[in-house]
Protein: Holliday junction branch migration complex subunit RuvA
Organism: Tepidimonas ignava
Amino acid sequence: MIGQLSGTLLHKQPPMIVVDCHGVGYEVEVPMSTFCNLPATGQPVVLLTHLVVREDAHILYGFASAPERSAFRELIKVGGVGPRTALAVLSGLSVAELAQAVAQQQAARLTRIPGIGKKTAERLLLELRGKLAPDLADAGATAAPVGDAHTDIQQALLALGYSEREAAAALKALPADVGVSEGIKLALKALSKG
């Protein structure tokens, strides 16, 4: 099993990145919390990973922190929740926010995440109870924006399943100087209200 990748970030387009490890380029899918904290392409990067082996594919998922990877592993143990849904959850909520939602049994907070319906949210709350420590450090700390923040925010929203129109509308409401991480959070809040 591949537990960690250390190499050079070659390419990033949410939710997929490519990491060059001594001449081998690994495609890695990452949650938006990790994506927002990635360095610029060409820079060194270290990711904790989880390998999912399916009949038709081997897919590598990467995380910036141990709490993120641990939360991902707990999420995919829940019936009906696959890796893509787990990534969506970790893209919509930080590990600390997820732990808080589970501890306080806030189904409405989970249903704001694209792809999470009422039944899935209730199943997550039931099966994750006591498995996520509420004092987990927030793995989604803000990072300095790299390149055009609005472009990165739009790509992130599209990767999460929002339409071009929805993404464009959310971008219009954002301040011009917003960073990628904060911009995604603000855009997701605006879209969840709409």
